Amino acid sequence: MAEPSKLTLASEAPCDVEHLDPNATEARRARLIPAGAAEALAETFRVLGDPTRVRIIEVLAGGELCVCDIASLVEISESAVSHQLRLLRNMRLVRARRAGRQVYYTLDDRHILSLFQQGLRHVTEERR
Question: Mean of the pLDDT values across residues 85-114?
Answer without folding.
Answer: 95
